[in-house]
Write the structure tokens for this entry.
Amino acid sequence: MNSAAEIQAVSEPDVYTSVFAFLQSHDFDLTPAAEEETIMVLRCSTILLNFYFLTNDSSRQVICYKPRSCALFIADLLQRAVPSAKTIFLYRNLPGFFDSWASVMFSGSYWRYYISTALKIDVFYDIPNYTQMEPSLKQRHGNK
């Protein structure tokens, strides 16, 4: 995205990940007051980030944030925090993404990866276990 003359790309700002971690620590169940405070933190953080990037390069007026994937779970709060922002959702092709993820999980060992995927161990064991372990997926699967 940085190749366009008028766009600044910002990769994975930590503030969005921190807000996600805060929500996760509260099991995604906030009081209305805590939710409003979280929205205010997101609004102020985004304003400060925008100010920083526009001050550093005023010739590029469009700022594109690419948050970590966990920020998907705070998308509704981000939209409420910055309602005037334009939104583009990018997604990855699931098989390619999973292959890349599995390669990392198997420490780059092609044979461990090959055996796991050829025998479908990943489908029948790893993926269900991952959805049970990952706290952010609890609310989606009812695994409380």
